[in-house]
Amino acid sequence: MQQLEQLLSLLRDWTAPAIAFFSSTDTLIQIGLIAALFVPALLLSRVVEPKLEAQARRIKGMPGLLRIIVAFLRRFEWLFFVALLALTNLVTHAVGWPAQTYLLRSAMILAGSWLAISVVSHVIRSRTVRTLFAWLAWIYVAAAVLGVVDDAAAVLDGAGFDVGDGRISVLTVLKTGLVLGLLVWAAYAAGNFLDRRIQQIDELTPSLRVLLGKIVRIGLVFIAGLVTLQSFDIDLTALTVLSGAVGVGIGFGLQKVVSNFISGIIILLDQSIKPGDTISLGDTFGWIRELRARFVSVVTRDGREFLIPNEDFITREVINWSFSDKYVRLDVNFGVAYDSNPHDVIRLAIEAAGSVDRVDNTRKTPVCWMTEFGDSALNFKLRFWIDDPQQGLTNIRGKVLLALWDIFKENNIDIPFPHREVIFRNRLETAPAPPTTE
Questions:
Q1: How far is CA 180 from CA 184, 226, 367, in A?
Q2: What are the tens digits of pLDDT across the range 102-119?
Q3: pLDDT, mean over the chain
Q4: DSSP assignment of 38-92, as one string?
Q5: Is the overall model pTM greater than 0.90, yes or no?
Q6: How many domains in the chain?
Q7: Is the same domain home to 211 and 348?
Q8: How far apart are CA 258 and CA 167, in angstroms?
């Protein structure tokens, strides 16, 4: 109740001078000048802005810089408005009329601050965070121009409660949130920058580059949190019980999340899989696009992207087609008619496999072996090697089969249909006639 009475008294102290100020002749003249100056500023921006933006759009390869420049150009009316206010302020001082130019100076400072904040906030990609930052920064500048920062801070600091030897107030929460947000944003920006630099180091393996990038980003965010807590004299030992309770909750409620996170670290350390590897996990066949803290992104040949938990790569059987070498052997089974010469079939099959562009004939040439005398055909196994399994396995097998079909047709070698011979035998015998009795 005492705080509410203090607030009401403060509002009464502001009301009377405000009414007197805004009803004076000098104030009304300044308001008229401010309103009149915005019109030419708007007209000038509509003439100049399209031409400058067209020139700025020619900047290539720097999307971040282009976004800031375009954001500045689309607020050109505020730049002209600030310039006209500054010029008017100089003229009024030289002429000495009106006697008071407080509103002109305040409008110039507020417009310039709004222009700077709007442009700088476009560095933040999140629309919600960007809008919140812009409004909070502008409110602070407005309060500073009006000279009410200390009074507002006293009111916000009075709204709070004591916790042990410390005190938590609205002002403390706002300051902590603001500093934490800025430091975390700076940590993320620095982490992403360092991560991009690490990814360009060819001497490191892909898995080690990913691991170092994640460690750097997590470490910077952790340091940002510690710096924020220490800057406001928050005793970290008071958080021991809370951190213990949170740890128990994480252990029971987030087992899978923690398991996937630890599994991701193990995968990065043992380098069992890495970006670009071709893998098979269950029914999923594709290549690894990215390793994340909780999952692995696997892209299949049909364009689908599977987000597979890291734990599956630790606990399940994974086929890595390119773990130590991308050189992969594939088999194709086929059969020919019994009237074919097996020696010719083997020669033609090797020739057909070698004619396919993706089949490697330099390191290991294709081989063909006769495997059995089948029920309907002579069965063979054709083996060949490729060095690009990420391009697909089914398609290369299909090309080899088509090459076999073409070369067999050219050389009159038949691929028989399965057939069976069915022999019917009549085993019915005439039954003896029953004895007759007289």
A1: 6, 9, 65
A2: 777 778 887 887 777 777
A3: 77
A4: HHHHHHHHHHHHHHHHHHHTT--S-HHHHHHHHHHHTTHHHHHHHHHHHHHHHHH
A5: no
A6: 4
A7: no
A8: 34
